[in-house]
């Protein structure tokens, strides 16, 4: 009988290096509240280390961080306005340095502005919406691709853009500028999925409908969900967790052959 050879020591080193290599890290923009917070928590439960950005609600961001760490994963909250290009650079540098290279990105941060007709909207409302939802989302996607693209030395990955059913409904009388910004998100998703598919990156979007988060109050319509939910074919509003579950599916291996999809999560609306 042949003597069993002891395992070479370097195997242990290789295993350690591989486990770092196989670590999954997701960046969720706007991860302190609403849909982003729900994604951050579900991602931790699915085994991701999570970086989340926020605009100003440090307390909410730290509460999400505590939940992620409680689930046994690493977490990092970074203040960064995605509507400010320097902040986007600062955000990605912090994630690179403190958590590692991302393998997944949820491009979620978004704003509406005060609800009303376009003729009554001021310049700042429209500019902020486009700066955050369009320019910011494009810059965030670019930085994600620079890190994940196999063409640029990355390991590949997945991006989920958070669009809105507003992109096809148009939101007349409420916020057509916001609907237009989400139309841009849909185009970004389609174009990018074709541009980087061969570089190991899948790009998809979710289009949430009427979801119960603080965003409606921020638009000056705290009763909006109550007012509109009767018009949703499923007869109710959606929850942030229901959108987050769709996002987690699109990030997962179960969606390995899905790219360029815009998945409506809107109760039939
Ligand atoms: P939310 O509850 O208002 O939360 C917004 C999140 O984005 C917060 O974490 C906020 O940070 C962050 N944020 C806001 N402005 C930012 C900026 N300039 N830079 C970085 N982060 C910023 O919103 P939500 O309802 O979860 O919406 C999330 C996404 O889903 C948005 O893109 C929205 O357009 C989309 N969506 C929502 C609905 C809906 O019915 N709720 C429907 C369709 C699409 P702070 O906590 O620091 O403020």
State the gist of this model.
Helices cover 46% and strands 14% of the residues. With 269 residues, the chain is α/β, with parallel strands linked by helices. The protein has a single domain, classed as 3-Layer(aba) Sandwich (Rossmann fold).
What structural class should be given to the helix and strand makeup?
Answer: alpha/beta
Total of domains = 1
Instruction: Order the strands across the largest sheet as they lie in space.
Output: 3-2-1-4-5-6-7
How many strands, which pairing sense, and closed or not: the largest β-sheet?
A: 7 strands, parallel
Separate helix tally: 10
Architecture overview:
The chain is of the alpha/beta class and 269 residues long. The chain has one domain (20-265): NAD(P)-binding Rossmann-like Domain (Rossmann fold). 46% of the residues lie in helices and 14% in strands. It contains ten helices and seven strands. A seven-stranded parallel β-sheet has the order 3-2-1-4-5-6-7, sandwiched between helices. Strand 2 (49-54), helix 3 (58-70) and strand 3 (75-79) form a beta-alpha-beta unit. Helix 2 (34-45) packs parallel to helix 3 (58-70), helix 2 crosses helix 10 (240-251) and helix 4 packs parallel to helix 5 (123-148). The radius of gyration is 20 Å and the shape is globular. The structure holds NADP nicotinamide-adenine-dinucleotide phosphate (NAP). NADP nicotinamide-adenine-dinucleotide phosphate (NAP) binds at residues 29-30, 32-36, 53-57, 60, 81-83, 108-111, 132, 162, 164, 208, 210-211, 213-215, 218, 240.
């Amino acid at each position: 009988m042949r003597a069993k050879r002891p395992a070479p020591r370097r195997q242990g080193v290789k295993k350690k290096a591989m486990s770092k290599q196989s670590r999954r890290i997701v960046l969720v923009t706007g991860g302190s509240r609403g849909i982003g917070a729900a994604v951050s928590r579900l991602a931790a439960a699915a085994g991701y280390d999570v970086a989340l950005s926020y605009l100003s609600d440090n307390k909410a961001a730290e509460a999400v961080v505590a939940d992620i760490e409680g689930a046994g994963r690493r977490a990092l909250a970074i203040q960064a306005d995605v509507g400010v290009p320097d902040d986007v650079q600062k955000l990605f540098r912090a994630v690179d340095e403190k958590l590692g290279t991302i393998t997944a990105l949820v491009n979620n941060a978004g704003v509406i502005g005060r609800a009303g007709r376009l003729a009554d909207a001021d310049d700042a409302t429209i500019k902020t919406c486009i700066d955050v939802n369009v320019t910011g989302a494009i810059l965030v996607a670019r930085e994600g691709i620079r890190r994940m693209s196999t063409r640029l030395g990355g390991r590949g990955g997945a991006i989920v853009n958070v669009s809105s059913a507003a992109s096809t409904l148009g939101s007349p009388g409420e916020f057509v500028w916001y609907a237009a910004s989400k139309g841009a998100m849909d185009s970004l998703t389609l174009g990018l999925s074709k541009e980087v598919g061969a570089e190991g990156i899948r790009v998809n979007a979710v289009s949430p409908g009427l979801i119960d988060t603080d965003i409606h109050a921020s638009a000056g319509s705290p009763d909006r969900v109550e007012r509109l939910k009767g018009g949703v074919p499923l007869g109710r509003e959606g929850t942030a967790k229901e959108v987050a579950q769709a996002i987690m599916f699109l990030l997962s291996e179960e969606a390995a052959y899905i790219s360029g999809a815009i998945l409506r999560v809107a109760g039939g609306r």
